Amino acid sequence: MKKSLLYIALLGISALFCACAEDDLSSESVIKESINAETDFDRWLEDNYRAPFNIRFLYRYEDIETNLNYDLTPARELYARILAKAVRYLWLDLYTEQSDVHFMREHSPRVIMVIGSGAHDPTAGTVTLGTAEGGLKITLYVGNWLENYVTINYNNGVDETDGYTVSIKSVDDFNYYYLHTIHHEFAHILHQKKEYPQDFNVISKGDYSAQWTSVSDQEAARLGFITPYASSATHEDFVEVYSNYLSMNDAQWNQRLQMAGSVGADRIQRKLAIVKTYMKEVWDIDVEAMRASLARRYNDIEHIDWSNFN
Amino acid sequence: MLALSMSSCVNKVEEVFDASASERLEQKMQECKQLLTSATNGWMIEYYPSFSSTYFPGGVTFAATFNADGNVTVTSELAVDPAATVTSHYSINASSSVVLTFDTFNDYIHYLCDPDEYAENVYGGDFEWAYVEGDAKQMVFRGTKTDNRIVFTALEEDIVSCVQTIKLIQQEINAKLYTGYRWTEGAVAPAEGEGPTDIILYAADGGNMLIYYPDGNTEGAYEEYPFAFTAKGISLYEPITINGITAKTFEWDTTAGALIATDAVTEKGGETTVSLAGWYREGFVHYNDYLGQYTLRYKSSATSSSYVTKTVTLKENVPLQSYYLSGLHASFPNVVVTYSKSTSGLALDYQPLGQYSTRGPAYLCPGSGSSLMPAPGYGWDMVNIGEDGQIVLQFIALSSYGDIFFLYNNGGWYLISRLYSPDTMTKK
After folding, report:
1. Nearest CA to CA, how far is B278 from chain A (Å)?
2. Sequence-ordered list of residues with C-beta below 8 angstroms from that of A74, at least 6 positions apart, any chain
């Protein structure tokens, strides 16, 4: 017994010895400032995304932020600038106006990343336009396809050095490739935080299918789905109803309802009613007011000071 | 137990490096940026996308200046006008090692890695280049996907002049349409047929690549030697060794029509001279030699056994690639005939010919009797069967449709004229 006590005492001493022999900490910090210079656009992003909303808007390609399964190319800086202004005006400011500044601080994803090319899968023959990762990050692909959907009018007729204005050639395409993705993914974030009523899931029960790529717009509509992708799963259905209702005008929305026939249209209308109630009761957002504001913003979009980043 | 406890007190491990891993990484990043920005005239960049790409085998030369503010200005041998430089951003980051990333889109750099046009990265290029080593005169990187070596050489002239010079040499060499090069020991190429046993490095069709058959059998095993153009000639990606002589860098000698090695060494390391003398395969006819007037021989009717003639002319359309053939029909002086470097023969194919007065769009197409074949891929090969330098192009129909029809379409096909069974075109 005495012997073991001695051992314990010795162990204690040796532990003390170890502690004595520890190295000093280096006075040099291992965290260094980036050696890469900031641009006026980087500073604008700091002031308009990072500081007010804690969103990092990434447009300079970083391999660790991207999906390494794809061959990708970076965004053209000019297009990233246009998307940054458009996303701010048509999404961040929209929600801030309809709710308050805290809403987006609390709920927005922490990272928005713009990639220039599509995420092509040559084997499957598909191209991914956007992805969301667990409410934290939204990636917008095909940033460089913007040249097909907008007209950039350079003030000096040649390049961007003296500023430029932007007009959208095709609002539908612009919506489809960029803004719809953001509204869609953001709706996922909202319902992941607070689930919508299960009544929604029973409206088209039994009609959801993983084979949505082989479903036409009309077939989907007749089953009560606003888009073919909405037929892939209940959560997708929910966010598709919401995001399409926001971004479609009345004519486009009614055309879908007409395509759906009476049964399909009734289902879509019932889904929309649940979406509206959910948004009002859970998030205190009036979907009709939001939709009107978004339409107004699209009308006013040419008045954005596109090339000013001071 | 006591011994054990004592030894644990002296736990100091000998440091292998003076600085910590993060400090060394930081130093290497600083070194890379400092070197990149130190070349005031910029760098010539010998860049190799994928060696397995069938779209553009071989190297591509860029020239670029890197500024401390994060801008990089690039031009390329693939530019139509090298003076049209493109500026974008670069960054230096530490991932698996120190990596130079062209992190916003640059038309020249990303052209060879962009998946959008073909829904995959067909050229197999990289825009993230891992920094290996460097000094003020030369920097070496490796593509992070391809692992291909990318060599930067500091420029004494500006980037636009550098690429303009490169393009001049490239155009001059390409315009020769060499089938390949004879490996010739000695600076000046001996006259045709007088040299040693021919060792041929074949020029690949499209792209910057030489192909060598070690056994001399062009059906057998071969080695590929991708190269990039430089301001003086070409530089191979890997040195080539033939007959114990090794060389990598060659300068173009206009007068000799040869690429002369500047770094050839013998097995023992002694300096020696070797050149790649431009070479044509037997029977080769250069694009330019086909330009001129011809006598076309064809039949006067479907049943006739005798031939009639008319004068036709081949004029330049796309240099080294195609011609305009005039004289077949007065209304259509710009019928396109294509030239193939690999066969050095010509081809006449189905083609639209623009509007035929107000009647409708006109076409040239092969036909027979009252049948037509107005579709691409049907037409004639025109093969040179002349001897002793005489050019005689023989028409060989690619289908059973052997007559040349001129037609217009106005809700149906209407005949303008036809030439029965074209036979030969003999140069005057």
Report:
1. 39
2. A59, A60, A61, A115, A116, B102, B103, B104, B105, B110, B127
